């Protein structure tokens, strides 16, 4: 039953053409676009010693996570509530929380898939390493997903409509991209901004992923703040979530 | 034993009393209607039956189950059509019916259901691309997707065109003939009259009357009314002398006679004895509409 619902959600998401476009095609396009530039394989001191190909692969992964968590998830869930889909489900033997769980599982799987594709393509075409500290990388990735998705759930919990969910998501999305170092690399940021950014949801995710990718153990404080985002936002979301 | 029993149900939203002491019971195999004006508390009442809302006071028992406590069992056996709910826009009709069917122990034959609801030619159409009436029919299909023992249908045919409405009535009768008990919320007198075995008239959260459609009509105004143009003209007194006649009103050439019992027969045979022809003869009976107005003091808002 759960598998069936998740499969249906997958079908519906694929029909929502912009979602796969932003979640897979955009990060991959960025990687290919920057990766084929001359010099993309040379370690760059301005990028903390990463090659620009490895750097852009991580950025692509971050964008994918942020879009899924701050955008796709709240829009979809708030929209389902607004249309009465959750309420309708509550009259069947399936509890609406299944639908919520199916979405989380599906989008988390989509995030993992995109990251795997980025790692593979980067490795084969542009010589970027397979994450050197793999367990730490996975921890960073999963905590990043948990943090960003929990914030998305909180948005879905309080947004009165699908449109409002999308709006609030956007308000969070762009500052997160900025603080996370998507527009300008964190290495190029003023120290104050960098310090703030390193503890923002996306910034912490990106930094720890990049560290682990290069084989440096990520900072525990950053992993801890990601876990804190996940727990606090997740708890608030379960308290505030309205099914109708 | 009744399959649905609602006793002294109360429900309020903040300061609004939505349901103010509603009691009724529905027998197995019956089509039971809930009729009332906008805001009467119909939806709130059936949502308490479905277990979607918790009553403030009173008891609701459905198939011997408590709709809130025994949700897992209740949802298996009760199919629901909500007054307002949509499906994801990109979900196709056949997908929706198959998915909802898969939620139940005894899924209905999805292809047949789609056929019966006249949706076969739309089976691969996305929900967002359906017309209002087609969406409504999908929603009825989903209510039946689990072969329920009871179907609760809120505003069954709102938004359907007259032909689709008649088709849906026929479908509901077929469903009932299979033994499904139906609890029907409606705005339409014609629908209530045609479909319902019994009707509860609800107004401002209270039950005003529970009866068969004919019983409701009789309860309000047992009087009949006959209008005709006598030719040649006749003396009103000849009519007044008949024991069945109560009043005779003259307007121009036309007479309006009211009375009870075998009024029509008494009047026509008297006319025949006197070789008088009754032209433009019209017999008016109290309709459910009239009964409703008499019971609630207002006309129901009809949405065409
Ligand atoms: N969720 C809610 N919150 C607050 N008030 C509500 C809510 N739902 C219904 N009401 C109020 O309760 C009363 C009864 O509403 P209900 O929906 O049960 O009426 P109804 O008979 O189904 O009306 P309609 O024919 O318009 O569907 C109305 O005054 C309505 O405004
Ligand atoms: Mg209603």
From TrEMBL, chain A:
- Which keywords does UniProt give here? Antibiotic resistance, Cell membrane, Membrane, Transmembrane, Transmembrane helix, Transport
A single GO BP term for this record reads: response to antibiotic
**Localization terms from the record:** Cell membrane; Membrane
Q: Which domain of life is it from?
A: Bacteria
| Major location (coarse) | membrane
Has keyword Hydrolase? no
Q: Which residues cross the membrane?
A: 12-34, 54-77, 97-121, 133-155, 167-184, 220-241
Molecular function GO labels: ABC-type transporter activity
Please give the InterPro entries that the UniProt record associates with this protein.
Answer: ABC-2_transporter (IPR052902), ABC2_TM (IPR013525), ABC2_TM_bact-type (IPR047817), ABC_2_transport (IPR000412)
Q: Which GO terms describe its cellular component?
A: ATP-binding cassette (ABC) transporter complex
Question: How does the entry describe its membrane topology?
Answer: Multi-pass membrane protein
Family that this chain belongs to: Belongs to the ABC-2 integral membrane protein family.
Which protein is depicted?
Transport permease protein
Q: Which organism is it from?
A: Actinoallomurus iriomotensis
From TrEMBL, chain B:
Q: Which UniProt keywords apply?
A: Antibiotic resistance, ATP-binding, Cell membrane, Membrane, Nucleotide-binding, Translocase, Transport
Its GO biological process annotations read: response to antibiotic
Q: Which GO terms describe its cellular component?
A: plasma membrane
Q: Which residues form the ABC transporter domain?
A: 4-229
Query: One GO molecular-function annotation for this sequence?
Result: ATP hydrolysis activity
**Which SMART domains does the record match to this protein?**
AAA
Q: What is this protein called?
A: Multidrug ABC transporter ATP-binding protein
From the broadest rank down, the organism's phylogenetic lineage runs: Bacteria, Bacillati, Actinomycetota, Actinomycetes, Streptosporangiales
């Amino acid at each position: 039953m759960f598998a069936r619902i998740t499969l249906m959600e997958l079908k519906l998401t694929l029909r929502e053409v912009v979602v796969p476009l932003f979640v897979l095609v955009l990060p991959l396009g960025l990687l290919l676009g920057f990766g084929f530039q001359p010099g993309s394989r040379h370690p760059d001191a301005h990028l903390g010693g990463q090659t620009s190909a490895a750097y852009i692969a991580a950025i692509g992964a971050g964008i994918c996570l942020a879009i899924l968590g701050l955008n796709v998830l709240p829009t979809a869930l708030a929209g389902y509530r607004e249309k009465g889909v959750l309420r309708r489900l509550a009259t069947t033997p399936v509890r609406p929380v299944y639908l919520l769980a199916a979405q989380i599982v599906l989008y988390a799987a989509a995030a993992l898939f995109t990251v795997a594709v980025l790692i593979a393509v980067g490795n084969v075409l542009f010589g970027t390493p397979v994450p050197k500290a793999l367990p730490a990388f996975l921890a960073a990735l999963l905590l990043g997903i948990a943090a960003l998705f929990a914030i998305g759930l909180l948005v879905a919990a309080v947004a009165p409509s699908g449109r409002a969910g999308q709006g609030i998501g956007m308000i969070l999305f762009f500052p997160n991209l900025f603080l996370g170092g998507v527009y300008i690399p964190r290495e190029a940021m003023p120290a104050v901004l960098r310090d703030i950014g390193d503890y923002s949801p996306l910034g912490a995710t990106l930094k720890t992923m990049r560290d682990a990718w290069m084989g440096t153990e990520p900072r525990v404080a950053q992993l801890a703040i990601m876990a804190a985002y996940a727990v606090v936002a997740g708890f608030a979301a379960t308290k505030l979530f309205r099914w109708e | 034993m009744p399959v649905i029993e609602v006793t002294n149900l109360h429900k309020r939203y903040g300061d609004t009393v939505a349901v103010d002491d509603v009691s009724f019971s529905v027998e197995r195999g019956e089509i039971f209607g809930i009729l009332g004006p906008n805001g009467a508390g119909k939806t709130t009442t059936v949502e308490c039956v479905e277990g979607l809302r918790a009553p403030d006071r009173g008891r609701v028992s459905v198939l011997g189950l408590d709709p809130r406590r025994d949700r897992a069992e209740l949802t298996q056996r009760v199919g629901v059509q909500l007054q307002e709910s949509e499906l994801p826009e990109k979900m196709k009709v056949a997908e929706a019916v198959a998915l909802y069917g898969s939620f139940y122990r005894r899924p209905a034959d999805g292809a047949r259901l789609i056929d019966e609801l006249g949706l076969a030619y739309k089976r691969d159409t996305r929900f967002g691309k359906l017309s209002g009436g087609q969406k409504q029919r999908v929603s009825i299909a989903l209510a039946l997707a689990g072969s329920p023992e009871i179907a609760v249908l809120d505003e069954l045919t709102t938004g359907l065109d007259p032909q689709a409405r008649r088709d849906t009535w026929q479908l509901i009768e077929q469903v009932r003939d299979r033994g499904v008990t139906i609890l029907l919320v409606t705005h339409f007198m014609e629908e209530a009259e045609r479909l319902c075995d019994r009707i509860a008239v609800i107004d401002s959260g209270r039950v005003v009357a529970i009866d068969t459609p004919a019983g409701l009509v009789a309860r309000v105004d047992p009087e009949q009314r006959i209008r005709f143009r006598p030719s040649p003209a006749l003396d009103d007194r000849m009519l007044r002398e008949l024991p069945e006649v109560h009043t005779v009103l003259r307007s121009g050439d036309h007479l309006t006679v009211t009375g009870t019992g075998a009024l029509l027969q008494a009047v026509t045979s008297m006319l025949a004895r006197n070789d008088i022809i009754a032209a433009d003869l019209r017999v008016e009976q109290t309709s459910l509409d009239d009964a409703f107005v008499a019971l609630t003091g207002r006309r129901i808002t009809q949405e065409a």
